[in-house]
Amino acid sequence: MIQVKVRNIGLDSITGSPIVMLSNIENEDEIFPIWIGVSEAEGIIISQSGVQTPRPLTYDLMKDIIESLGGEVEYVAIVDKKENAYIAEIVIKKDGEEIHIDSRPSDAINIALRFNAPIYLEENVVQKVNLKDIQEASEKQENTQAEKAEKPQEIKTEVIEAEPEVDKELEEFRKMLENIKPEDFAIKPEEKKEE
């Protein structure tokens, strides 16, 4: 297992679904994206921004319950994938005993952030994206297009090698990363509900 941290929250440009970007602690160019729900994304953003809410939100309430029962979150881990769903676990230490609780990754990450607990994942479970590879492929494509634009007469007279095709998903992911803003998930005053 490798230790990761929450790098940021993004949006899938096709579905509009939030994506939590987990980066390898030892190599931040290795990104592990996991698609999550809107409320779970909001929970992560609220935790990372340090916003204080007048009443405890769900994950703050869960933290209070765990602590009230004498437990402490030791770590969380994304351990498996079954039927296109990631499987995580929250490991709570209570009275010297470890308690493993089945969880969705988004819930486990939210709990880990509130306890400042480490987040781990099985590297072979979550598909890895390397930011350097995406940037290099993008730069190569831009340079090739710039060269073609500068020398239009040579294109007509010379045989040009076919440009390697950039993986469409990686290109869409790169574009999505460029447009990610934390305020995309901010709660607007008119959307807040009284409790």
Automatic annotation (TrEMBL):
Top-rank taxon, per record: Bacteria
PROSITE patterns (UniProt xref): BFN
One example GO MF annotation: nuclease activity
Region (Disordered): 138-157
InterPro entries per the UniProt record, alphabetical: BFN_sf, Bi_nuclease_dom
Residue intervals of the BFN domain: 1-133
Segments forming a coiled coil: none
PANTHER family, per database record: VON HIPPEL-LINDAU DISEASE TUMOR SUPPRESSOR, VON HIPPEL-LINDAU PROTEIN
Protein name: BFN domain-containing protein
Species per Swiss-Prot/TrEMBL record: Persephonella hydrogeniphila
